[in-house]
Amino acid sequence: MNAREALGRYGEDLAVRRLTQAGIVVLERNWRCREGEIDIVAIEADTLVVCEVKTRSTGVYEHPMAAVTPAKAERLRRLADRWLERHGGPPAGGVRIDLVGVIVPGRGAPAVEHAKGVA
């Protein structure tokens, strides 16, 4: 695993911790199909949550919360449809696309931000 992959994995671990602390139940991590990958598939009450995780170290990179472009949002919606096709259809509460942004500073604690319904 290279440094970039390790940073991403660390960010996903922090995202899972944040989601579970908020009462969201994680069903799967890194679910893959031909069209791509969902970082986290979870359920909150009766809503399926498809969660994209973006992790950045401090520096010149864009803020992770700016990472969901319209094209990325459309891809996440398609991936959610594929997951639902393979897992029995949508729950009563429908589907929500969330983003967890993680900023890992050179020193100190990472900042974790959870935005619900970004797409």
From TrEMBL:
GO MF entries: nucleic acid binding
Gene3D superfamilies the UniProt entry points to: 3.40.1350.10
InterPro entries: Restrct_endonuc-II-like (IPR011335), tRNA_endonuc-like_dom_sf (IPR011856), UPF0102_YraN-like (IPR003509)
Pfam name, any one: UPF0102
Homology family: Belongs to the UPF0102 family.
Protein name as it appears in the record: UPF0102 protein D7231_06480
